[in-house]
Write a structure and sequence with these properties.
3 domains, 476 residues, 22 strands, protoporphyrinogen ix oxidase, domain 3, single chain, Polyamine Oxidase, Chain A, domain 2, binds flavin-adenine dinucleotide, FAD/NAD(P)-binding domain, 17 helices, alpha+beta
Length: 476
Amino acid sequence: MRKIVIIGGGIAGLAAAYRLQEEIGNGASLQCVVLEAMDQFGGKIATERFDGFIVERGPDSFISQKPAAIELCKKLGLGDRLVGTNREQTKTYVYTGKKLVTMPDGLSLMIPTKFLPFAFSPLFSWPGKARMALDLIIPKKRGNGDESLASFIRRRMGEEALRKMAEPMLAGIYASDPETMSINSTFPMFVQTEKKYRSLILGMLARKRQMLTQKPDKNHQPFSLFMTLKNGLGEMVDAVIEKSPDVCFRANTKVREVTKHESAWRVVLEDGETIDADAVIFATPAKLSADFLQPFAPKVAELLSQIKYVSTATATLAYRKEGFAHPLNGFGFVVPRTEGRKILACTWTSSKFPHRTPEGYVMLRCFVGGALNEDLAEQDEEAIATMVKKELADLMGIHQEPEICKVFHNKKANVQYRVGHAGLIDSVQKELNAFPGLFLTGSAYTGIGIPDCIQNGTRTAESAIKLFAEESQIED
Ligand SMILES: Cc1cc2nc3c(=O)[nH]c(=O)nc-3n(C[C@H](O)[C@H](O)[C@H](O)COP(=O)(O)OP(=O)(O)OC[C@H]3O[C@@H](n4cnc5c(N)ncnc54)[C@H](O)[C@@H]3O)c2cc1C
C-alpha cells in the first residue's frame, strides 16, 4: 500500500486529500494523512458564527466563472447550500474627490461595454474617457513577454483607468502593487482578449454577445459572479473532512522537517514522531515549503523563496440598523491610492450577502494593508479598529459605535505574483522533477483564488496517483 502525506490543511491540501479519497473509494490501495499545524483545518478559510452573525476571517466568496469550487461543493453534497450575491443591490462605488461615486453600469472586469452610462459617468474626466476609448484603435502588443498590470492598463486604457479602477479593483484583489504584479499570471484573460480582438472593449463586447446567445442549461441558476455557502465557507472545509472517511486528518500536528529515508520520505513532527511516506505534498505557503526543501533541494528552495508575501488585515464591524447613517445600497467601495486614505476597500457585507447578519443589524468589512501599505496592517488590533472607525466616519459619515468590531491579521498571508511569475514556477517544477514523490500545491503557484487552489490541489493529487501507477507498472 502506498502512503501519501499532505503537509498543510488549507483548501489546496484538502482538495488534494478529497481527490485521493475518491481514488481510495474506487479501490486504490492508498493511505493518506493530512497534517495541519493549527487546531482547525481550512488555513485562510475560517468562518466564525455567533448570535446569528457569520463572519469570515479570510475569503468570503469565490468567483463562479472558474468552475472548480462549485464542482467540489456539488460533489460534497453542498450544491443546495451555494448562494450568490444579492441581486437587488449590485452597485459598486469608488471613493474619489471626497465622495462615493458609482461605477458606471456595463463595466465588465472594469472594461466599459455600454456607451451611455460610461460617457455620462462622473467617475472619469473627459480626457480620461477619451484615452480609454483609444483602446478601440491602439494596436496589439507583439510577443508573449510578461508585463506589469500597470504597464498593460496604461498602454491600453491610460493612467486614469489605472489609478481609479485597475489599481483599487484588480491589484486590490491581490493586495499588490500594480507596477510589479504580473499581468500574465493574474489577469490572463486580458492578455488573451488583446491577442484575439486587439481591443479590450471589442473583446468584452464580443464575450457579452456570446453569453447572451448561449442557451441556459436546465439546471440554470441566476448568474452571480461571486458565490458563497449559506453558513460560510467553513462549510466546505467541514464537508471535505466528513466526506473523506478513509483519509486521516490530524490537526495540531506541526511538521518540523522532511528528510530522505531509504527509497522514500520521512516526515518529522514537532514532538519527534516520524511518518514515512512514498510521496509528500507540500500544501504550505511557498516560504515554508522552501524551508522544508532547503536541506536536500536547495535550488528549489532558493526559487521558492523568491515568491513574496505581504500582510493585510480586515476589520468586520456590525451596527444596529436603526439610525444607521448610510443606506448601504450596493456591494461596497474601493479607495484609489491617490486619495491618500488608510483603508483599501469596504464591503457592505449585509447588502452583498444578507444572510450573514441577524435582523436589525448591518455589517461592513474593511481591508487594510497590502504591498503599498503593509505597516498599517501590522499595527495591533485596537489601533486598526480605531483607524477603521475614523475612516468610516470620514468616508461614509458613520459616527455610530459598532456593536461588534473584529480585527483579523493576515500576517504575510497574501502571495504576490510578480512579473515573470509563470517562468519562475516553470523553473521550480523543472528542478522539483529531480525529486520524484515530492509535490507542491497551494496559492503560490497557478492562482490565488479558492477555485484555483482547489484545481491545483486536485491536479497535484492526480500527479501523485499517476506516479504511483507508473511505479507499479515498472515493479510488475
Ligand atoms: C484576507 C484574505 C481574503 C481572501 N479573500 C478571498 C476571496 O474572497 N475569494 C477567494 O477566492 N480567495 C480569497 N483569498 C485567497 C485564498 O483564500 C487563499 O489563496 C487560499 O485560501 C490559500 O489556500 P492554501 O491551501 O494555498 O493555503 P493556506 O490556506 O495558507 O493553507 C496552508 C496551511 O498549511 C498549514 N501549515 C503551515 N505550516 C505548517 C507546518 N509546519 N505543518 C503543518 N501545517 C502547516 C497552515 O496552518 C495552513 O492551514 C483571500 C486571502 C486572504 C488572506
